Amino acid sequence: MKVERYLGCLLFFLIVGCNEHKTKKVNTESVNSQLEIKDTVVVVKKKQFKALKSLAGYADTTFVRLADYSAGFAYDMRYATENNFLKSKVYDCAECYTRVKTAKALIAANTEFIQKGYKIKFYDCYRPNSVQYKMWEIVPNPQYVANPVKGSIHNKGGAVDITLVTLDGVELDMGTDFDFFGKRAYHDNMDLPQQILDNRKVLKETMEKHGFWSIRTEWWHYNLATASNDRIANFKWDCLDE
Ligand SMILES: [Zn+2]
């Protein structure tokens, strides 16, 4: 009898133990899948990358890597280097992600720029909310960095920091470097050489035509008008091998 009771207890323990393990696993899986549906991100592995993909069929709010859908852009992702106003590298690697609707508008604007002999060069695109916190830690001043609690349109995948380059990659003179904080960078500063005003005008007018609006104090920053109500995102891109 004692042996039978002992075996009974052992069997009971094994069943309960197994069930507990199983339940924990299911819970973990459901938490992970909840995280996954937060932001839909399409990642095309560079090693498998053969031809440029089409954006047709994706939801407007899906995140994509712009270079997978157009070869027409230039990039100088400053926050993946120390060549920025923070003097600090806050991205592990240089990538330009945006939501699909932002990517579509950028590609349309760039098609028009290319007809004029220019193309868009990116300084910054989507910025994970965790990186916004990192930047706020370095410069906790809302004049220069958006408060991460409220977030920036960059965190929503709807803002880009850009300039124009010729098709050979030569930068147009916009009067200041990217992230120059001062009157010389203001859109309403007309006290600048005509060539600089003309360069800013072609950038602004074309971007506005394709659904972007600017902010008065930064000639390089453009927000997609329909991005204001999108959610702040925090996915971090993988640094894939070439
Ligand atoms: Zn910006």
Protein model, in words:
With 242 residues, the protein is of the alpha/beta class. 26% of the residues are buried. The site of zinc ion has 5 residues, from strand 6.
Give the structure's gist in a few sentences.
By secondary structure, this protein is α/β, with parallel strands linked by helices. 32% of the residues lie in helices and 15% in strands.
Comma- or semicolon-separated keywords:
Muramoyl-pentapeptide Carboxypeptidase, domain 2, 32% helix, 242 residues, three-stranded mixed β-sheet, five-stranded mixed β-sheet
Which SSEs are present, and which pair or pack?
Layout: H1 2-36, E1 41-42, E2 63-65, E3 74-75, E4 97-99, H2 100-115, E5 118-124, H3 129-138, E6 159-166, H4 194-209, E7 212-215, E8 218-224
Parallel strand pairs: 1-2, 3-5
Antiparallel strand pairs: 2-4, 5-6, 6-8, 7-8
Helix pairs in contact: 2-4
Zinc ion (ZN) binds next to strand 6.
The profile of the biggest β sheet is: 5 strands, mixed
The figure for the number of domains is 2
Count of DSSP H/I helices? 4
Characterize the overall form: globular
Structural class: alpha/beta
Q: How far apart lie the N and C ends?
A: 68 Å
How large a portion of the residues is in β-strands, by DSSP E? 5-15%
Bound molecules: zinc ion
Order of helices and strands: HEEEEHEHEHEE
Main β-sheet, spatial strand arrangement = 3-5-6-8-7
Instruction: Evaluate the radius of gyration.
Output: 24 Å
- For the record, the CATH class of the largest domain is Alpha Beta
List the uncertain runs: 7-37
CATH topology of the largest domain: Muramoyl-pentapeptide Carboxypeptidase, domain 2
The overall pLDDT average reads 85
Counted beta strands: 8
If classified by CATH, what would the architecture of the largest domain be? 2-Layer Sandwich
Helical content class = 25-40%
